[in-house]
């Protein structure tokens, strides 16, 4: 259960957070806890994750409670597992400037009996606007990523990053950040040789003195999605707080974060892994096509943070041409965790060395008792936010392609149950 | 073939940026001719019915503090490049507060115009921004198509009114018809007219002034009040007017 209220200017920041998360995915989890209200979003191929946590101090008032469900044998407490479609919630927070001017108070509360989130704006002149948004029951995902363990950290004012971002066209899909202890370079990156003759290559060198904090442990070049960076940037301009970038070597995810007294935002993005030199066999090609990025891994529970190698039984491949699939909320108790694998269309490099790649497979976020399974992988995980939910997992190694029970899984190539 | 040039003056840079923005609005791809004294942006559209041609000339001394070029050969001391005008315009736009801008022709796997900008940032450290704009070298046999067009002798020449005003008038007229009739005479009158089945709209501009006549004999016996008229495609005119970013001292319409 969630009940909170905020003022007009806070609505603007809240709305900006939603807009930034909308760049990542079409779905948003509203996840209240004692730490505050978290908004989470994961993209369908699990290569980007965003979370904005508003502490209780951000709100004028904030109340949260778990609900207790009594089953036959025991009672389980559950958090509000609320997933909203961006299409429903984004229009509500569309004109933020006018919202800031007109809204005196905003209240958000949930009505679990009807699976609705109610957003009420109390505006000037006695106008009250109420939006009822239906939500779907879905357990949120959370990424476990030790950003403080990264060897490279940069803290920069959003304005500087904005000036760099202006260099690139909006059609630029990926950018590369190259760092050495002496300089930082942001440049356009393009895999396809075809593109080179048509598009402009741009780069910008920024000296270390422009950063609020500059720590480079290892010289590296990482390539990540530009759109997600822009999303984070627009949010940071609203909060006027510096952005911290934590990263390591290519292939390992990077984190963009903002830490303020009232809120904490984290955007974890997958980075392109290095190209291997050897050719890959069809089998490994298949597997490795899905490993092009170090996908952020999802598992419904936090466990096995093992660095086990990906075996050949690792989940099958999603080929490049698969469009990234959405997370389909499963309200029905199906046993199918959607294996969403990144057939991200922009992933091109093949990583033949599957044993080293921190790859991940994704298991579903849905609360599937006993059905989710865990794959081997990488350095990053998603865990279910409420880990008091005891799910047992069967470690299952499935064949590459299995028929799905449910409709949505028919769409997922190589998805397994 | 070599080309390198540098701009250090902010006003020159600004002007050059605006010229390139104007070119970008007029033509998607254009040819750039580099010669020892001048820089030309050329568009020649051979479409018979109402194709647009453009020839833009810049004296290099007015813009660049350093300018060196070596053409294809000593007899043909020029370089003709084809590029996407939007790319150049966008690259120049990022140079707004630059301390210096350098342009040079490079070959990085394929010919590029490399624009290298030194920006002065707030914390007084300079940032270097580089853009590599891909270009195609136009072979010599195609050079003849890109020569300066001769403006044919006209019946009437008149100075145009403030382009902004003209643009807003033409924009409204565009909604009614695809063809515009321009009438002008030697008394400084200009009419913009559209005629449709339902309505006829004319906007009159008076006292615009006429440039001195080039050839006296042709127009000597012309009645100053007599209008010469041309029909043009309104969209092309609008494209030209919309692209105007550089405030001209004079704009002349010849019919």
TrEMBL record, chain A:
It holds the Pfam family Rad9. GO terms for biological process: cellular response to ionizing radiation; DNA repair; DNA replication checkpoint signaling; mitotic intra-S DNA damage checkpoint signaling. Keywords: Phosphoprotein. One of its GO terms (cellular component) is checkpoint clamp complex. Belongs to the rad9 family. Interacts with HUS1, HUS1B, RAD1, RAD9A and RAD17. PANTHER family: CELL CYCLE CHECKPOINT CONTROL PROTEIN RAD9B, DNA REPAIR PROTEIN RAD9. This is Cell cycle checkpoint control protein. It comes from Enhydra lutris kenyoni (northern sea otter).
From TrEMBL, chain B:
The keyword Lipid biosynthesis does not apply. The gene is LOC111156993. This is Checkpoint protein. InterPro entries: DNA_clamp_sf, HUS1, HUS1/Mec3. The keyword Ubl conjugation does not apply. Component of the toroidal 9-1-1 (RAD9-RAD1-HUS1) complex, composed of RAD9A, RAD1 and HUS1. The 9-1-1 complex associates with LIG1, POLB, FEN1, RAD17, HDAC1, RPA1 and RPA2. The 9-1-1 complex associates with the RAD17-RFC complex. HUS1 interacts with POLB, HDAC1, FEN1, PCNA and RAD9B. HUS1 does not interact with RAD17. Interacts with DNAJC7. GO terms for cellular component: checkpoint clamp complex; cytosol; nucleolus; site of double-strand break. PANTHER family: CHECKPOINT PROTEIN HUS1, MITOTIC AND DNA DAMAGE CHECKPOINT PROTEIN HUS1. Component of the 9-1-1 cell-cycle checkpoint response complex that plays a major role in DNA repair. The 9-1-1 complex is recruited to DNA lesion upon damage by the RAD17-replication factor C (RFC) clamp loader complex. Acts then as a sliding clamp platform on DNA for several proteins involved in long-patch base excision repair (LP-BER). It is found in: Cytoplasm, Cytosol; Nucleus. Keywords: Cytoplasm, DNA damage, Nucleus. Pfam families: Hus1 (PF04005). Signal peptide: none annotated. Gene3D superfamilies: 3.70.10.10. One of its GO terms (biological process) is mitotic intra-S DNA damage checkpoint signaling.
């Amino acid at each position: 259960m969630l009940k909170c209220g905020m003022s007009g200017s806070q609505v603007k920041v809240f709305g900006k957070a939603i807009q930034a998360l909308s760049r990542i995915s079409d779905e948003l989890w509203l996840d209240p806890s004692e730490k505050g209200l978290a908004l989470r979003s994961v993209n369908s191929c699990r290569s980007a994750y965003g979370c904005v946590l508003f502490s209780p101090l951000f709100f004028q008032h904030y109340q949260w409670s778990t609900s207790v469900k009594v089953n036959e044998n025991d009672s389980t407490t559950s958090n509000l597992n609320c997933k909203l479609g961006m299409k429903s919630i984004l229009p509500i927070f569309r004109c933020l400037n006018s919202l800031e001017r007109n809204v005196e108070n905003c209240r958000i509360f949930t009505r679990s009996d009807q699976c609705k989130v109610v957003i009420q704006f109390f505006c000037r002149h006695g106008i009250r606007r109420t939006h009822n948004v239906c939500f779907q029951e879905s357990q949120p995902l959370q990424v476990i990523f030790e950003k403080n363990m990264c060897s490279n950290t940069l803290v920069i004012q959003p304005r500087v990053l904005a000036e760099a971002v202006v260099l690139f066209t909006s059609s630029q899909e990926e950018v590369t950040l190259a760092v050495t202890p002496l300089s930082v370079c942001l440049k356009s990156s393009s895999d396809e040789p075809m593109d080179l003759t048509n598009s402009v290559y741009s780069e910008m060198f920024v000296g270390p003195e422009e950063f609020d904090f500059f720590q480079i442990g290892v010289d590296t070049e990482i390539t990540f999605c530009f759109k997600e960076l822009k999303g984070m940037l627009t949010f940071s301009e609203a909060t006027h707080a510096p952005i911290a970038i934590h990263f390591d070597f290519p292939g390992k995810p990077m984190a963009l974060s903002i830490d303020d007294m009232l809120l904490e935002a984290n955007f974890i993005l997958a980075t392109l892994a290095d190209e291997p030199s050897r050719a890959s066999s069809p089998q490994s090609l298949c597997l490795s096509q899905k490993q092009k990025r170090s996908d952020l891994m999802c598992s419904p529970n936090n466990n096995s943070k093992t660095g086990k190698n990906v075996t050949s039984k690792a989940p099958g491949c999603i080929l490049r041409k698969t469009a990234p699939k959405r997370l389909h909320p499963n309200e029905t108790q199906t046993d199918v965790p959607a294996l969403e694998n990144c057939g991200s269309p922009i992933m091109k490099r093949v990583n033949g060395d599957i044993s080293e790649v921190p790859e991940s497979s994704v298991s579903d976020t849905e609360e599937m008792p006993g059905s989710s399974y865990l794959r081997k992988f990488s350095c990053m995980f998603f865990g279910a936010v409420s880990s008091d939910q005891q799910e047992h997992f069967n470690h299952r190694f499935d064949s590459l392609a299995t028929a799905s029970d449910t409709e949505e899984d028919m769409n997922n190539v190589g998805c397994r149950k | 073939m070599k080309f390198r040039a540098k701009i250090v003056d902010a006003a020159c840079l600004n002007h050059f940026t605006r010229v390139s923005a104007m070119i970008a609005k007029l033509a998607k791809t254009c040819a750039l001719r580099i010669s020892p004294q001048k820089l030309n942006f050329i568009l020649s559209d051979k479409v018979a019915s109402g194709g647009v041609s453009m020839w833009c000339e810049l004296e290099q001394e007015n813009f660049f503090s350093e300018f060196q070029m070596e053409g294809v050969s000593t007899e043909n001391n020029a370089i003709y490049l084809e590029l996407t005008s939007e790319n150049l315009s966008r690259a120049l736009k990022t140079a707004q507060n630059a301390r210096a801008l350098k342009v040079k022709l490079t070959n990085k796997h394929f010919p590029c115009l490399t624009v290298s900008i030194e920006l002065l940032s707030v914390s007084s450290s300079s940032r270097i921004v580089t853009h590599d704009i891909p270009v195609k070298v136009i072979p010599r046999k195609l050079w003849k198509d890109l020569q300066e067009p001769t403006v044919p002798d006209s019946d009437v020449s008149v100075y145009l009114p403030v382009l902004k005003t003209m643009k807003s008038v033409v924009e409204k007229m565009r909604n009614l018809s695809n063809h515009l009739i321009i009438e002008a005479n030697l008394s400084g009158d200009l009419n913009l007219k559209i005629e449709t089945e339902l309505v006829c709209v004319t906007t009159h501009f008076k006292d615009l002034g006429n440039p001195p006549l080039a050839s006296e004999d042709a127009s000597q016996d012309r009645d100053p009040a007599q209008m010469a008229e041309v029909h043009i495609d309104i969209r092309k005119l609008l494209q030209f007017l919309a692209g105007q970013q550089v405030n001209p001292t004079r704009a002349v319409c010849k019919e």
